[in-house]
Amino acid sequence: MTARVTLHSPALSNVVTIHDFPLAHPTVQPLPDGRVLAVGARARWRQDGPDRNAIIYSADGTALAAETLGDGIEHVFTTGTGHVWVGYFDEGVFGNFGWGRADGREPIGSCGLVRFSPDLKVDWRFPFHEDNPWGAISDCYALNVDADTAWTCYYTSFPIVRVHDGVLAGWRGDGTAANALITDGSRIALYGGYSADRDRLVVGQLSDGQMRSSGEYRVVLPGGEELPGDARVIGRGPDLHILTGTDWYRLDLTDVPAES
């Protein structure tokens, strides 16, 4: 299969053509020097070695390196330095496809959130329950990476946790599930939820170890139509990006009223 990766900043700036693209359900992210990283969501463990589900391509589409980032990948975000943040859903945490069995290997994503170095080696792992007061990650529902800082909201109790230079800070949530989040560091908005709340946006303030909700909204298209069921919603810094078909919308946190 031939794949084409388009880079926008915000206008189209480059197209990378990749022949014989091998990954299923990929996430693609930019890297320094015009390179791109493609990561498949699944990777099976085998006795002769696991699937390599991460490939770095040059600007002309040449494969430069391949590595295994683990199975059950929900989120992939790169930074300007070439580091890679990966959040895992429950199968990536607890094991599937051969990972976590007695004759297999501990899942790479067993901690729920991992940062990889520019050469795709593990260089930081989210601490387990006994090492942080906000609890272990069972499923990394939401991840936002802004420069070198990562924010996550995760199952089971959905706290908001910030990671900067390997140091954690956290705020208790109100149990609101979120599939994406945006923040300016003190104000925050959580997007998504279960069933009827899939387009919900809850805004609040981070203070005194708690997220204090101040408003709740529904995210719709500019004409007022509901978001399509297959819309892709991604938070980066204070911006919520919404991709629907060939359209790309952006909602800035400053555009959301503080109170509803």
Automatic annotation (TrEMBL):
The name this protein goes by in its record: Uncharacterized protein
Organism: Actinomadura coerulea
